[in-house]
Amino acid sequence: MKDFGDATNVDQRENEGIDDDQKTEGGIILPKKQSHPPNEEHLIFLRDLYGVTTFIVGFRFVTLTDRIGKRTLKRFSYDQVIDTRGNLAVITDASRFSGLYPPKEKCGESPSPTQRDSQGKIFLTTAEGGFVKMKGTHRSQILQGLLAFINKRQRVNWFATDRRGDRPSNFFEEKKLLAASIEKAVEREATLLLQLAIDAHLLTSHPGNISYRYPPITR
Amino acid sequence: MKKRKVLVIAGGVRSIRSFGDRLPQFVGLFASFAVDTALHFLRSGDDVIFLGTEDLVARAKRGAEKGGLVGLNSRTFASIQGLIELHEALRKDNLKPDILVNAFGVSNCLVLSANAFT
Lengths: 219, 118
Hints:
The complex is a heterodimer of chains A (219) and B (118).
Chain A: H1 7-15, E1 24-25, E2 28-29, H2 39-50, E3 55-62, H3 70-84, E4 88-93, H4 94-100, E5 123-126, E6 131-133, H5 139-154, H6 171-199
Chain B: E1 5-9, H1 23-43, E2 47-52, H2 54-63, E3 69-73, H3 80-92, E4 99-102, H4 105-108, E5 109-110
Parallel strand pairs in B: 1-2, 1-4, 2-3
């Protein structure tokens, strides 16, 4: 199998200290600039690579050890979904996530009942702004739920309605357009009748008026 | 139901410097989450392509009871060039994923200072 990337870059980055170029926004210290492209660029790039048919699940992990509010989690994850054109974001913070994976537990093995931890919680944010808490306290329950959610969402067919260039967007515009087309038809008909009257020598002199009633009176 | 191709991207946590002393803990968490997700997809009958470090791929393969998991080794994946290479490799084998689970740390971790919300 092909080996992607260069391992030395990791070591270099790990050995680097914390820079002073971190920006702050509303008291939150934002991720510092790195030598490689910004995080969001990677995520956006995934959409560019695989197109709209691939269901992209992102993962938002807030590294604070202190538990943060659901509203804040929702904001972070929704921003990620929108900014990166993802379909779904799995969001959690360190305190919640640690509960799912107690230390010394080997990956891929089913945890024993004693390893259950009610702290393990993750949330899902959909592209429409939905915020769903995954039910269950056991990690396999939560992962099962996550999979079911992904499966369900992946099967959804999304449609976009294309507006025709000359088609009005609302009822009033449509009504106005209809009235204008009727007026044009009436004008055309009146011109035709006038021409017919002239050709038939019905109008012998210039003075006077000619009128045409629309809609015609039905007898 | 039609078999789907699921691509799970793992790893990349080591390059987040701000973890400091907590680094091993987070590396383990991400690895576990990525491996578990891949295995759950595999058990539900999907084809899984797992991209991660050599040890992660080995772990995922160990967990895959019936096989069917394609492993791609990646020591680090923190560049767009890396993504392009992956894409090219997948396209060559006609492996466009239906579902992509990105548990890649660098792209997804929101590194905040400890007193961000105080």
